Amino acid sequence: MQDEVIFTEDNSVGVITLNRPDRLNALTYSMVQKINKNLNSWEINDDINCVIIEGAGDRSFCAGGDVVKLRKEVLADDGPPTNLSKSFFYDEYTLNYKISNYKKPFISLINGFTMGGGVGVSMHGSHVVASEKTMFAMPETAIGLFPDVGGGWLLGQLDKGIGAWLSLVGARIKAHDLLKLKLITHYVSSEKVEILKNSIISSSPNSNQKVNNIIDQFSSKPQTEDSVLIDNEELIKKAFSYDTIEQIFYECEKLVENEFLKIQYEELKHKSPTSLKISLKQIRNASHMSLKDELIMEYRMVQRCVEIGDFFEGVRAMLVDKDRKPNWKPNNIQDVDETRVNLFFEDLGDLDLILTN
């Protein structure tokens, strides 16, 4: 049986390879635990100068957490909730925060699908390198969740309309737009990614500036033909800059003669109503929060999604049975009132996420 994640040390460079290409390198709990452990070790190891993270295969960096496996194991243990449903997200969010504060250069080569949990183990790093193969999305509202792994914080720092659009619709964007939004630091064509990786290993840089100097030798400007924002940015801002889901729905419906916005509106109508409301509140809150505080908020939210939200039903409908007919509870926006929304943001007391630098 192959290792789900491979750790190598080469010329004082630690390399993490997510190694489940048949599952688009989706993260399991054991992978999260092993990455945490190795990063802790490398951070205090004077023989390691920097860290690279990559995905095996040529399709995906990491398409997210393996929520199908998580759901199966939690249900088998008579949950939710269970110790696993608590510890999986606790350790995953701890890992996301660790990466954001890592004391050595952390270089993410996101050469393929980068979604959900894959965003959390890459885009908080010091250097995020995308290619023309990169496809970014936070599609969690389709499975009764919300943009987590610190993704809500990343989206919350963007323009209100763009952040809400990416969060609520789960829209997919590529390298040109990622660079425009400063969600990545560099663009390198896919044919040069492996050469770049080998150059970093041979140079073994021990500072962010030295890493920049190496990547700059291979970087270029991404093509614009894959940009969603070039033609639709102002329309997205107009429709998604409101602070309630009802207002966003109203604006989308009003502008529905536009073909692009019609597609976005149809997408919204299939998402979990609860997830839409808590996701919008999350990213609006995140705009004035630190990543640390936002991750603590996310942990409160995710535990409620497991216990009283639509998460397990969403995973069933979209990823297990694939009937695409989730039984959302409640099933319409009007029935998700402020009292219900606020439940997802209540502190957990002694069970809250604790993060240390």
Detailed description of the structure:
There is one protein chain. The model has no long low-confidence stretch (mean pLDDT 97). The strands form two sheets. A six-stranded mixed beta sheet has the order 1-2-3-5-7-9, sandwiched between helices. A three-stranded parallel beta sheet has the order 4-6-8. The chain starts with a strand and ends in a 14-residue tail after the last helix. The protein is an alpha/beta fold. It is 48% helix and 11% strand. The protein has a single domain, classed as 2-enoyl-CoA Hydratase, Chain A, domain 1. The chain is globular.
Can you lay out the helices and strands and say which pair or pack?
Blueprint: E1 5-10, E2 13-18, H1 29-43, E3 50-55, E4 60-62, H2 67-76, H3 83-100, E5 106-110, E6 113-115, H4 117-120, E7 127-130, E8 135-137, H5 151-156, H6 160-169, H7 175-180, E9 186-187, H8 190-203, H9 208-216, H10 229-240, H11 245-254, H12 259-269, H13 273-286, H14 291-307, H15 311-320, H16 338-343
Parallel strand pairs: 2-3, 3-5, 4-6, 5-7, 6-8, 7-9
Antiparallel strand pairs: 1-2
| Average residue-wise pLDDT | 97
CATH architecture: Alpha-Beta Complex
Principal-axis shape equals globular
Uncertain runs with pLDDT below 50, 5 residues or more?
Answer: none
Physical arrangement of strands within the biggest beta sheet: 1-2-3-5-7-9
The counted number of beta strands is 9
Fourth CATH level, the homologous superfamily: 2-enoyl-CoA Hydratase, Chain A, domain 1
